[in-house]
Amino acid sequence: MLQKRVIVCLDVKDGKTTKGVRFKGNVEVGDPVEMAEEYYRQGVDELVFYDITASHERRGIMLDVVRRVAEKIFIPFAVGGGIASLEDIRAVILAGAEKVSVNSQAVKNPEIIRQGAELFGNQCVVLGMDAARDAGMPSGYRVYINGGRTSTKLDALEWAQQAVELGAGEVVVNSIDADGTREGYEIPLTRLLSTSLEVPVVASGGAGSSRHLIEVLSEGKADAALIASMVHIQGYTINGIKSDLSKAGIPVRID
Amino acid sequence: MKRVGVVDYDAGNLTSVKTALKFLEAEYIVSSRTEELDETELLIFPGVGEARTAMQNLRSRGLDHFIRDYFQSGRQMLGICLGSQIVLSKSEEHRTECLDIVPGTARRFSRTSGLKVPHMGWNQVYPLRTSALFNDIPAGTSFYFVHSYYPDPKTETAILASAEYGITFTSALQLDNLHAVQFHPEKSGKWGLKLLQNFLNF
Lengths: 255, 202
Known about the structure:
The structure holds two protein chains of two kinds. Chain A is of the alpha/beta class. Chain A has helices spanning 32-42, 54-57, 63-72, 86-94, 104-108, 111-120, 156-166, 187-196, 210-218, 229-232, 238-247; strands at residues 5-13, 16-21, 24-30, 46-51, 77-80, 99-102, 125-133, 141-145, 150-155, 170-175, 201-204, 224-227. Chain A has an eight-stranded parallel barrel, surrounded by six helices. Chain A is globular. Helices cover 22% and strands 36% of the residues of chain B. The longest helix of chain B has 12 residues, at 189-200. Chain B has helices at 15-23, 34-37, 51-60, 63-72, 189-200; strands at 3-7, 27-31, 42-45, 76-80, 88-91, 96-97, 102-108, 119-127, 141-147, 149-153, 159-165, 167-175, 178-181. Chain B has five helices and 13 strands. By secondary structure, chain B is of the alpha/beta class. In chain B, the strands form two sheets. In chain B, strands 2-1-3-4-13-12-11-8-9 form a nine-stranded mixed β-sheet, with helices on both faces. The N and C termini of chain B lie close together (10 Å). The interface between A and B is medium-sized, with 33 and 36 residues.
């Protein structure tokens, strides 16, 4: 049967992996290629490399990191952060990434989703979305851009639906409220999106223990759970987390 | 080691197939030219995207006849993802006439079961018989899939392996010297690499 995926996100700033709390105070924690190799050995299902400086400093994309990862890691991985044009998408995919994650730039220019999907297929374009609770919005969640610093007028569910219509093959929903807290994913947001969209939904933000992944993959109906500090900082291993998930009855890939 | 030809027909990105072959130290060429590809002993035809465009691209380069001839020559060949669908007679995707090497149809997963389409992620593959392609790979090993259509060969003997996604579908097929897998071995970790190595050893 189809298994629930555990995805590790590596936030990359100036070529180093970082993990910040609520998008601030990033701490340098390691080399992204070495870390990717280690998680690959531990059985991670997928990786996301997110260039966290790109959206506001307009840095180029870390194509060198992408190429080095592609030579060593034979699982799908996505690259996000500052993907602003079809040329950015093409460069990242041809360097060896399976998917690109578009976020702020897709809000500013939704056509990039359609163009990317037409060129490389829907499976290649992932909508990354930062959302925070907002009782004034129809779904109860508002979309933020620029690393969570800028609010938009968009409702989280409506934007995700629009992105899927444009051709996004997957949606990663990051809760700004939960991100970095290690207190658990935003379950209602994840479930709302996963039950409303016809494409896979990846939950992001708030993971601090295996229990949180179990919750979001069962109650939250997520197809995949994204983690970062649990493995970068807290000392969890992918094998350990997957063993916990498996014991809880969540179908996961264990080789 | 045998020389491998990778068919380039603008059906998606070949980078991951190339890096996997490089990692396995295979001697390979990537080409859309039939005369170059004909000098190889093994043929891989990958592909993602849409069946109609893929078939148009193959026809415009004369690669449709070439792939059929390669099959007739008895040399070993491996289709990947869309490559496992276009070897069939036809695809439901835009009612496309395909290569017709293996009788059958590529069918779309039904959304009625509440399942998400595309079928994306790691799923367990169960070979129905022993095969050199799955040599030393345990039954139930997970491979990475991403597709909305799946191969449905007419004869059961062409089904090499199955997988479950709402229904039981064909995840690998074989007819004589043709093998094809719906999943992406080049993205399926150590077992995917093992499968590719098994093919290189043919």
